[in-house]
Amino acid sequence: MDTAASGTCEGNKRMNTKDTKKEERTALLKEYVGRLSRGDSLEAVRKEFAAHFQSVDAAEIAKAEQDLIMGGTPVAEVQRLCDVHSALFHGATRSEQIANAEKAVQASAGNVSASSAGPSLSKITGHPAAVFDAENHTISGRIDEVRRCLSSGADPETVSEKLKTFRDVSVHYAEKGDLLYPLLADKYGISGPADVMWGVDIEIRRELKMLTESGSTLPDFQERLEKVLTRAEEMIYKENHILFPLCAKNFTEEEWMRIYYELSSYSTVLSGSRPVWVGAEKRRGALKADRTKNAAQPADGDERIPLDGGHMTISQIEAVLNTIPMELSFIDEGNINRFFNDGTEEKLFKRPDEAVDREVFSCHPPKYAAMARQIIENLKNGTKDSVDVWINKRGVPVFVRYMAVRDKKGKYVGTLECVQKMDFARDHFQEKESRDCGKKED
User: Fold this and answer.
1) What is the rounded distance in angstroms from the CA atom of residue 107 to the CA atom of residue 171?
2) Using one digit for the tens of pLDDT, what is the confidence trace for 186-212?
3) Which of 58, 156, 161, 222 is disulfide-compatible with 242, CB 3.0–4.6 A?
4) Opening angle at CA 242, ends 240 and 246, nearest 5
5) Within the chain, which residues score under 50 in pLDDT?
6) Which domains does the chain have, with CATH numbers?
7) Are 184 and 193 in contact (CB under 8 A)?
8) How far apart are CA 280 and CA 267, in angstroms?
């Protein structure tokens, strides 16, 4: 056998050995899930997990979770495995946790961080990675605050107030759910973290909501609070050593920038406002334009129109406006009728085509023209942003709202009139009242 062939055989053997080891490790992970589902203690499984997976990396855990889910393992069970993984380092001193965590991800460092992501993203001011990292520091500090409050024997009211402040961390989970998980799963096919961590995020948020709303009236309040604090603490580990490295490995700079643009629409657990990412701000306009330019154009040639929230064709925009269950009228800044939607039902207020491009007041009887002038003038000069009118027409309660339409700079560009039949709401509450009365009589 020649040297080249021998080298190829040796390479294949190494690859086969590597694949076999991965299969063996995945089999062990499945075994742990099965044992947990059969009632084995978390501590017992944790010890074996620690023995076999001290060098586990983020990508391997994510892949194993995804394989388990694709193979039919319930997501709830895989979430328990995720808890075992984070519990591997739970309970050690803070310095030990950091040291062990660094060892655990060292094997994947070349794949996940330094070589593929360039300089540490968390060092870039305003970068989403830096924001998420800072939020986790804040969350960790708040966990410590609640725990100190509990250990000091504070009264229930004080603990409840501290918990209300801590519940603000839910926005951090919302950011991940909207901006990170879908991108990983949809574009990069990495659905494990989305399926597993997202589920845990929701459980933490629900438990925080329950504990905050119920206060300390729950008989097991303190025990449940301790557990949810531990889960939130372990989620920080999962994010820092599984989720965020996977994002750093896969997301492009443009994708990070688009995430940055979206973050401003969320409230924040950070004190003060989020820092600015200068590089992203310089490209904001260009990336907005690119999104529309690169969008696939419809086969029928109906060109997409760029909008702040995306892009739509004229026929799509018209169809959406006509689907909204209201009669819509738009009057421009010169008080000229410019648009009426068709709607799907017979209109309460007829709007003939000839009324388009006419002054709006000419379409009102003299009796109501003065009122219309006053409403629009108040909207135009900023005295009011909206005016609500309730009427009864043909035996149907009707809600009419006039709203000032302003551009991004606050300049008045027109008035939108929305007319909505409210008989469905009336009927709903009448039926509900009838049912409630029936229950009381029973």
Assistant:
1) 32
2) 888 887 767 778 888 989 999 999 898
3) 58
4) 105
5) 1, 3-4, 15, 88-118
6) 21-281 (1.20.120.520), 315-427 (3.30.450.20)
7) yes
8) 20
